[in-house]
Amino acid sequence: MNFPGLKSLEEIPRIWKRAYLLLCFWYAANYAVGTFIEWKLENPNTYIFWNALQQFEALCILIIAIFFYTNWLFRFNVYVQIACHTAGAMLHFLVMGTLSYYLEDYVEGYIGWDFWKAHIVGLLKWEGLHFHDQYIITIGVYYVIRYFQGVQHQEQEKSELALKNREMQISLLKSQINPHFLFNTLNSINTLIGSSKEQARKVITQLSDIFRYALDSHGDQMVKLIHELDFIDNYIRIQQVRFGDRLKFVKQVDFSCLSVEIPPMILQPLVENSVKYGIAPKDDGGTIILTVKRFNNMIFFEVKDDGLGSNAKKVMDGSSSGVGMKNTDERLKSIFGPGSGLRIHSNEWGYSVSFFIPFEEPAVEALNSKAM
C-alpha cells in the first residue's frame, strides 16, 4: 500500500497515472473555458491564452509533486498530515500566485517586492481562491484513491486469510485419520495375515480407500452423501476388525438425501469420537447410530452412541490432535452459516452430536411436486 522511493514510471501505480490524466484533463477544460470567457468578455488580447497555457503546464507539474508529497505524508498521523497540508496549500498558492504575477505584472514592467505583494494580496480575493482549490482537489483525489486501495487491500487480505484457513482446514481434515488409527489397523492386518489372508486383503483395500478419499478431499469441493457414507462404512468395518462384536453400527438414512452434497469428511470426526470415547472404553461395547433425515428445506444429521456418555473420562473430540470436533464445527459454520454448528448432548446413557444444513430442492423435482 505504501509507495516510498518510487524510482521509475513503471513503479508508479496505474491508478495514480489515470487520476493524474483525469485531473489534467479537468483543469485543461477549466483553463480553456475560463480563458475563452475572459477573452470574449473582458480582455480581447490573445496573450491571455499563452498565459493560461503556462499556468496549466505549471499546475500539471505541481500535481505530480502534490501526489508524491501526500503519499509521503501518509506515514504520519492525521494531525501532522493536516498541518503539513495546510502549509502545502499555502506554498502551492504562493507558487501559482508568483507565476501569475510574472505573467501578468512582471512582464509589463511592474517589478519589485511591493508589486509582487500587491498581486498576491489581490489573489486572496474570491477569484484567486481557485489556487487553493487546485491543491485541495488534488489531495482529495489522492485520499479517495487511497481509501479504495485500502478497501481492496482488506478484501485481498480477507481472501488470502480465507484461503489459508481453507488450507489449514484441509490439512487438519487429512490429519484427522490419526496415527493411532493407522497403527491399530496395521496391527489388525498383521494379525489377520496369519489367520485370514482374504480378510487382511479386504482391510488393506478399505484402508487404501479411506486414505485415497482423505487425500482427494478439498475444502471447497463438496461430495455427495452417498460417497461420504461409503467412506464411513470403510472406517467402521476396519474398526470392527479391532473391536469385533463390541462395535455395532446402524444407519438410518433417508434415501432422498443420498444425492445431497456435503463437505468431505464432515461425519468422520463425529463417528471417530463415538468409537474412541464412547464405545472403546466400555467393556461390553455399544452401538453407533448415524441418522440422516430431511425436514422440509433442512437436512438433519446425527451421530449417536450408547457408550459411556457423560461418564467418559476424556473430553470427547474425535481426533488425536484435539481439533477434530472444533474443526468440524467451524467448517459447518463457515460453509452453511452460524445456525449449522454442532449441537452436542451427553448423559449417562450415551452421547450424540447433530447438525442441520440447508437443502435446496432441485428445479426438476420442485416443478414435479408443484404439478402434482
From TrEMBL:
Gene3D superfamilies named in the record: Histidine kinase-like ATPase, C-terminal domain (3.30.565.10)
GO cellular component terms, A-Z: membrane
Claim: Transcription is one of the keywords in the record: no
Domain (Signal transduction histidine kinase internal region) ranges: 168-247
Residue stretches spanning the membrane: 20-41, 47-70, 82-103
UniProt keyword annotations, A-Z: Kinase, Membrane, Transferase, Transmembrane, Transmembrane helix
One GO MF term attached to the UniProt entry: phosphorelay sensor kinase activity
Keyword Heme among UniProt keywords: no
The protein, known as: Histidine kinase
Biological source species: Dawidia cretensis
